């Protein structure tokens, strides 16, 4: 049974949308069910997604999409050799998602990077601080409304 | 100059010291990016900067006179560069090598220092992306000129 079919059967009311472009399967899910679905994807024997390939975010500000952000998870099963992309839409004023470090420890630094670059917070993350930039950096530079030539208070020159 | 058995040279102390200092430039190469390759070309035998007394790079800031900042400086590198500068003994000079160190170059973004003169004082700017060896030697001669004519702190 294809991955998306198993998933939609298990959580029919938590899946917002799915699509399958040339075998590239994607599911948009609701934020409150993230941990539940991720745990199912990792532990179910038919799916067995034991590897988190990537975790990132997208800012759709200029594309006018609502809600503004999406957190994107790429999963892979080393045993069954299949992949799945999970997307979680996030509102700007409630930019908070459950951390999945408890399921995949690899998510630790990815989530710190997403916090650093997009300002999306992760609930129950063990150590959510900036990873690429430094303490005292003002703003989150991969947000589309971050001014391209903004100067930082610790470095200057002043704006 | 010569009179009988005695010989002497007339000069001012300031110029004498300047002359000595400008031909004894021990550089600290602070190399972070692609300009480093052009720096290596300058330091190689073909262009021979030993002619300017600047042939010996020192890899400790405490033993060097000229800080050559070669390549893009990111925000995270900025405190390191400042610390290296502060570790150097007086007299000391700074050369901004390449357009990234001069102004930030085309890296007008959140991560790059927009010219190292926002952090430390700079004596000579060598623009270019990267500057050619001839350009660097021109900058080196400009620095020598500057050293020759400045007030020498002893």
Automatic annotation (TrEMBL), chain A:
Catalytic activity, as annotated: a quinone + NADH + 5 H(+)(in) = a quinol + NAD(+) + 4 H(+)(out)
Q: Does the keyword Ion transport apply?
A: no
One GO molecular-function entry = NADH dehydrogenase (quinone) (non-electrogenic) activity
Query: TM segments?
Result: none
The Enzyme Commission number assigned here is 7.1.1.-
Gene Ontology, cellular component aspect = plasma membrane
Which key words are in the record?
A: Cell membrane, Membrane, NAD, Quinone, Translocase, Transport, Ubiquinone
Which residues belong to any copy of the NADH:ubiquinone oxidoreductase 30kDa subunit domain? 29-151
The source's domain of life comes to Bacteria
Family per record:
Belongs to the complex I 30 kDa subunit family.
Q: What does this protein do?
A: NDH-1 shuttles electrons from NADH, via FMN and iron-sulfur (Fe-S) centers, to quinones in the respiratory chain. The immediate electron acceptor for the enzyme in this species is believed to be ubiquinone. Couples the redox reaction to proton translocation (for every two electrons transferred, four hydrogen ions are translocated across the cytoplasmic membrane), and thus conserves the redox energy in a proton gradient.
Q: What is this protein called?
A: NADH-quinone oxidoreductase subunit C
Q: Which organism is it from?
A: Candidatus Abzuiibacterium crystallinum
Gene encoding the protein: nuoC
TrEMBL record, chain B:
Name the lineage: Bacteria, Pseudomonadati, Candidatus Omnitrophota, Candidatus Abzuiibacterium
- Where is this protein found? Cell membrane
Topology term for the membrane: Peripheral membrane protein
| Subunit structure of this chain's protein | NDH-1 is composed of 14 different subunits. Subunits NuoB, C, D, E, F, and G constitute the peripheral sector of the complex.
CC cofactor: [4Fe-4S] cluster
This one is known as NADH-quinone oxidoreductase subunit B
Q: What is its main location?
A: membrane
Task: Outline what the protein does.
Answer: NDH-1 shuttles electrons from NADH, via FMN and iron-sulfur (Fe-S) centers, to quinones in the respiratory chain. The immediate electron acceptor for the enzyme in this species is believed to be ubiquinone. Couples the redox reaction to proton translocation (for every two electrons transferred, four hydrogen ions are translocated across the cytoplasmic membrane), and thus conserves the redox energy in a proton gradient.
Q: What does it catalyze? A: a quinone + NADH + 5 H(+)(in) = a quinol + NAD(+) + 4 H(+)(out)
**PROSITE patterns reported for this sequence:** COMPLEX1_20K
Task: Give the cofactor binding note.
Answer: Binds 1 [4Fe-4S] cluster.
Annotated HAMAP family = NDH1_NuoB
Establish whether keyword 4Fe-4S is in the entry: yes
For this protein, the Enzyme Commission number is 7.1.1.-
Gene3D superfamilies annotated for this entry? 3.40.50.12280
According to its UniProt entry, the protein's GO biological process terms are:
aerobic respiration; electron transport coupled proton transport
The residues the record assigns to binding [4Fe-4S] cluster are 34-35, 100, 129
UniProt keyword terms in alphabetical order: 4Fe-4S, Cell membrane, Iron, Iron-sulfur, Membrane, Metal-binding, NAD, Oxidoreductase, Quinone, Translocase, Transport, Ubiquinone
Q: Name one GO molecular function term.
A: NADH dehydrogenase (quinone) (non-electrogenic) activity
């Amino acid at each position: 049974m294809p991955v998306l079919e198993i998933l939609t059967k298990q959580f029919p009311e938590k899946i917002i949308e799915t699509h399958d472009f040339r075998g590239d399967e994607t599911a948009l899910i609701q934020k409150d069910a993230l941990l539940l679905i991720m745990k199912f994807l990792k532990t179910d024997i038919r799916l067995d997604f034991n590897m988190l390939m990537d975790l990132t975010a997208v800012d759709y500000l200029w594309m006018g999409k609502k809600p503004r952000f999406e957190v994107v998870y790429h999963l892979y099963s080393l045993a069954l050799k299949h992949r799945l992309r999970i997307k979680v839409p996030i509102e700007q004023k409630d930019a908070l998602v459950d951390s999945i470090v408890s399921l995949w420890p690899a998510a630790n630094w990815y989530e710190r990077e997403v916090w650093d670059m997009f300002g999306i917070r992760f609930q129950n993350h063990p150590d959510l601080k900036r990873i690429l930039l430094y303490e005292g950096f003002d703003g989150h530079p991969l947000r589309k409304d971050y001014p391209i030539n903004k100067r930082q208070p610790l470095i200057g020159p002043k704006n | 100059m010569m009179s009988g058995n005695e010989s002497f040279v007339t000069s001012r102390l300031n110029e004498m010291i300047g002359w000595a200092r400008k031909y004894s430039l021990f550089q600290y190469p602070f190399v972070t990016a692609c300009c480093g390759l052009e720096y290596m070309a300058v330091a190689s035998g073909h262009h021979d900067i030993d002619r300017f007394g600047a042939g010996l790079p020192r890899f400790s800031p405490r033993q060097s006179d000229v800080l050559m900042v070669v390549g893009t400086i990111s925000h995270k590198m900025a405190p390191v560069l400042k610390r290296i500068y502060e570790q150097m003994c007086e007299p000391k000079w700074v050369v901004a090598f390449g357009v990234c160190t001069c102004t930030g170059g085309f890296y007008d973004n959140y991560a790059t220092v927009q010219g190292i003169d926002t952090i430390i004082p700079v004596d000579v700017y060598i623009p270019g992306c990267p500057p050619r060896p001839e350009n660097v030697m021109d900058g080196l001669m400009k620095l020598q000129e500057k050293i020759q004519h400045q007030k020498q702190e002893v």
